[in-house]
Structure formats: structure tokens, C-alpha cells
Amino acid sequence: MIQLQHVSKAFGERQVLSDISASFYPGKVNMIIGASGSGKSVLMKLMVGLHAANSGQILYDGRDYATLEKADKVEVRREIGMLFQNSALFDSLTVEQNVLFPLQMFSGQSMAQMLERVNFCLERVGLKDANQRFPSEISGGMKKRVGIARAIVLNPKYLFCDEPNSGLDPLTSILIDELIKEITEEFNITTIVNTHDMNSVMEIGDQISFIYKGKKAWEGSKSDILSTDVQELNDFVFATTFLKDFRHRRNTGK
């Protein structure tokens, strides 16, 4: 479980996030949605330790990350898996080597043990025979699955996904969504997804937090979205759905 308590962040004179409190639960896909520039990406960077909050607390199962000793911070970082927007694979490494990388950095296991874990994770994401292929030899959807395998190889308690469907076709997006949902429930991970894809929200979102101009403007389930009276959220949902439909019709000629 991750808890945010009155978290604020500014860069110089620019206030990006103000007084945000929220709880993200294990075994659930917790989604952060909002328009570009709303502050949702900065919020995720605060939670993974890439930025420090100016005020407030970020608690990992009760542990205040900002006050931990260096060794304890390393331990929390080891419990975090990250799926990047562009997959962030090493082009010069094979699929197997990409997934192996975190284990070599943090696990202290033997090579045989590490390879067994790598093979388990690749099989779990449907890439059983892709070990020796390079990122340039696989599709965008396969790269995302390699990214997921690498993100879960250390058996994380917390999984962060930054726009996981970015650049994917609709069918592949559905497959990635289903995989994230399955892994979250199977391993009881606290999964946090940063997205503006309303299809993903309505398909796999268990809890949704809507960020508007640096503040949490709404929180609820995907069914609650359909009956919300928060105008900013309604505007966001309508604009996102309309734009996606427009792009689809433009690309297909329908």
C-alpha cells in the first residue's frame, strides 16, 4: 500500500502539485488520469523517488521514504518495478539480458537462479522463446511485454506504469491492459498506472484519481465516472473519447 499525505511540489516559483492525499492498494490497478500538464507525471516521479516533495509524506507500507536511511531507501527502491512509456530497453542487449539486468544489479543470486527467474517472467508475459532476440527484432507490443517482464523480475511490491499503451494499436493495448491486470492480481502488487487512455481506465481501473491543475479533483471507481458531477472530469472524459474517436476515423477513413 502506498499513501500520500498532503503532498506538494514546486519547481522554483511554479507550483505543480498542491496538497494531494491518496491511498493506492495492493492487488488493484490504481490509475492516475489527467490532461497533459496537470501534474500526474510529476506525481509519479515523486512516488518512485525521482523528485523530492516540498511538503507532505509518501508512505510505502507505513515507511516514510523521505526520512529513511540510505540503505532503507535502497530496499524500498528494490521493491519497485517500473514500466516506462517507451519501454526503455537496452538496444545492445538481448531480451534475456534486458530482463536479467535488474537481477544482476540487486539480487545477489547465482546465474542459474537468475536465469530461472528470467525465463519464468518471460513465459508469464508470453515471450517464452524470445530470449536471444534484440529489441530491434521485435514489435512494439513485444517490447512492452519485455518491459513488464523486467519490471516484475525482482518480484516487486509496487509496480508503476507510465502511459503503458502509448504508441500501441488498439488490439495490442487491450492485451497489455489485460496482462497488467492479471499480474497485479496474481502477485498482489500495488500497481499505479499513469494514463489518459479512457479505454484502459474503463477496462481495468479499480481506483481512479483525477488530477486537475495540480490538485486531486476527484477519486472513485470506473463506474462512478459515469455519474460524476465534477465538470472538469466530464470535460476530460468527453475530450479524450472524442479525440480518440476522431483519430480512429481519420486513420481508417471511416
What class would the helix/strand composition place it in? alpha/beta
The averaged pLDDT comes out at 90
Largest sheet: 6 strands, mixed
Cα-based radius of gyration, to the nearest Å: 19 Å
Whole-number tally of structural domains: 2
User: Given the C-alpha coordinates, what overall shape results?
Assistant: globular
- The sequence of SSEs as H and E is EEEHEEHEHHHEHEHEEHH
CATH class membership of the largest domain:
Alpha Beta
CATH architecture of the largest domain: 3-Layer(aba) Sandwich
Reported by name, the CATH topology of the largest domain is: Rossmann fold
Number of helices: 9
Give me the count of strands: 10
What multimeric state do the chains show? Answer: single chain
Taking the alpha carbons of the first and last residues, their distance comes to 44 Å
CATH superfamily of the largest domain: P-loop containing nucleotide triphosphate hydrolases
Quick description:
This protein is α/β, with parallel strands linked by helices and 254 residues long. The protein is built from nine helices and ten strands.
Write structural notes for this entry.
Helix content is 42%, strand content 24%. By secondary structure, the chain is α/β, with parallel strands linked by helices. The chain folds into two domains: 1-77 and 177-254, P-loop containing nucleotide triphosphate hydrolases (Rossmann fold); 80-155, no CATH class. The chain has a six-stranded mixed β-sheet, with helices on both faces. Strands 2-1-4-5 form a four-stranded antiparallel β-sheet, with helices on one face. α3 packs parallel to α5 and α4 (111-124) crosses α5. The longest helix is centred in the last third of the chain and has 22 residues, at 231-252. It is globular and about 55 Å long. The relative contact order is 0.16.
